[in-house]
């Protein structure tokens, strides 16, 4: 079972993912104005690899963007590749 926690302040933030109570990884971002954020890093600990946790982090960022009228700039290679593979996410791209 996974849990995602969102940490946000005026300059940057992160989505942290926990797997069975242990922190497994995070996706970090920086705000670029009030209407968009830049995903700059996505990482999942090797011990939790192969479970789709990084993808869950990107999807959590997309959900947040949709619910709050924000756009995303995916500079992180993993996030960028995820957006390219999933056309249904592209409505939040800047």
Topology:
Layout: E1 2-8, E2 12-19, E3 22-31, E4 36-44, H1 53-68, E5 71-74, H2 77-85
Parallel strand pairs: 4-5
Antiparallel strand pairs: 1-2, 2-3, 3-4
- Distinct helical segment count: 2
**Spans with pLDDT under 50 lasting ≥5 residues?**
none
Number of strands: 5
Strand content: 35-45%
Order of helices and strands: EEEEHEH
Task: Report the span from N to C terminus.
Answer: 32 Å
**Helical amount:** 25-40%
Mean pLDDT: 97
- The shape is globular
Structural write-up:
This protein has helices spanning 53-68, 77-85, and strands at 2-8, 12-19, 22-31, 36-44, 71-74. With 94 residues, it is α+β, with helices and mostly antiparallel strands. The radius of gyration is 12 Å and the shape is globular. The N and C termini lie far apart (32 Å). The mean pLDDT is 97.
Features:
94 residues, alpha+beta, 5-stranded mixed beta sheet, 2 helices
Condensed summary:
The chain is α+β, with helices and mostly antiparallel strands and 94 residues long.
